[in-house]
Amino acid sequence: MLTIARLTVREAARRRLLLALLVLTALVIAATGWGFSRISTLSEPSGSAGADQLLQAKLSLLQVRLIAAQLLIVVMYMFSFVLTLSAVFAAAPAISGEIESGIALAVLARPLRRRDYLVGKWLGLAGLVAAYAALAAGAELAMVQAVIGYLPPEPAQLVLYLVAEGLVCLTLALALSTRLSGMVGGVIALVVFGVAWLGGVVGGLGVVFANDAITQIGTVSRLILPTDLLWRGAVWSLEPAATRALAATAGPAALATPFFAAAPPDPAWLLWAAGWVAGALTLAIWSFRRREI
What we know:
- The protein is mainly α.
- The chain has one domain (2-289).
- The protein has helices spanning 2-14, 17-39, 51-91, 96-101, 103-108, 114-148, 155-177, 182-208, 212-224, 227-238, 241-250, 267-289.
- It is globular and about 65 Å long.
């Protein structure tokens, strides 16, 4: 399995997928760095620094930190989409593409179990997803701290939630790859991801308007694909204390937007997300075993 994982990473590097992703990420981080640097000018007092001006500067600094926190959430939201797309496009042809090209037939003719082959693919791709999430999030957070002096309260949890979100989409796309072509499986995985995201927003609206039927849509979408749940955890890890207090005061209204989280995810839901990944990977192994090559 480790050999297959290593070969999977090498194949991704050979196709320059990692290089293209890293270059684009660096450009985005540089662009957002310029944007964050413009926000910091809001706290600069003009003229002579009297007592009122100093107080106003401190208030402006607090406002700038809150603006920076919300902008960082939006930027990480974009990164989560990029991470999801990358995971899907990397995993969707991972099995089907090698079956169509005949590579899988040549490899599996050796004393190699299909389970080991598929799990090795998953491990290699999961390592790439985790490395990209940690590198991109870490670089963005370091840039924000250097430019504006702001660091979210739970940066390590942010990386874990982003990695978990990427692994969910990766596992879904890999499971579809055991039966469908790369293009079809990738499209289906992205559509399911979009529906789950929309279901989370609709479920939040159901809570706001106290409509149980609409609220259940959000619950069902989290059961089908727990990506919205994991993103809410990432938002919670990015929110400063002032934003958390505001979200808690807003109550159910905070659930209607993907950019606020009134509370961290319930541990039971996190266990469900872990079980979902394990179950989807098990289903992929079973599907691949029963497929004729």
